[in-house]
Automatic annotation (TrEMBL):
<keyword id="KW-0456">Lyase</keyword>
<dbReference type="InterPro" id="IPR029068">
    <property type="entry name" value="Glyas_Bleomycin-R_OHBP_Dase"/>
</dbReference>
<dbReference type="GO" id="GO:0016829">
    <property type="term" value="F:lyase activity"/>
</dbReference>
<dbReference type="Pfam" id="PF00903">
    <property type="entry name" value="Glyoxalase"/>
</dbReference>
<protein>
    <submittedName>
        <fullName>Putative enzyme related to lactoylglutathione lyase</fullName>
    </submittedName>
</protein>
<dbReference type="InterPro" id="IPR004360">
    <property type="entry name" value="Glyas_Fos-R_dOase_dom"/>
</dbReference>
<feature type="domain" description="VOC">
    <location>
        <begin position="3"/>
        <end position="127"/>
    </location>
</feature>
<dbReference type="InterPro" id="IPR037523">
    <property type="entry name" value="VOC_core"/>
</dbReference>
Length: 127
């Protein structure tokens, strides 16, 4: 039934132009804006997600909306920092670098969280 067409996900942002600047300029993802101001973000390996503007009605997601799998978590965290991204810190979970080291504790991937300009939670993770 639902396997015949294209599927995608989406989340809201405060400002689509600001989001485009971040996803394209900071994270290096290809983005296009349609005539309604909806941002199409091209994900690695061909997936897409949309970010739609809600202006003052935007409420940041309280969960991770996008996860980016990387080979080297420390290199990814370093690149994010070089691009001005500040990692979220969670007491008792993340280390001084801002990474939750799950692999060494047999508790899932190594993961680091950060926010987009609208306050939505994103992550880089390494299995």
């Amino acid at each position: 039934m639902l396997t015949t067409g294209h599927a995608f996900s989406g989340f809201s942002v405060r400002d689509a132009d600001e989001a485009k600047e971040f996803y394209e300029g900071v994270l290096g993802l290809a983005c296009t804006m349609n005539e309604m101001g909806i941002l199409d973000i091209e994900l690695p390996h061909g997936g897409h997600v949309i970010a739609y503007p809600k202006g003052d009605g935007h409420v940041p997601a309280t969960f991770t909306v996008l996860n980016f799998e990387v080979e080297d978590i420390d290199a990814a965290v370093g690149e994010l920092a070089e691009n001005g991204v500040v990692l979220e810190r969670y007491e008792g979970l993340t280390d001084d670098a801002g990474v939750a080291r799950g692999k060494s504790q047999n508790r899932g991937p190594d993961i680091a969280w950060f926010l987009d300009p609208s306050g939505n939670i994103l992550s880089v993770l390494s299995n």
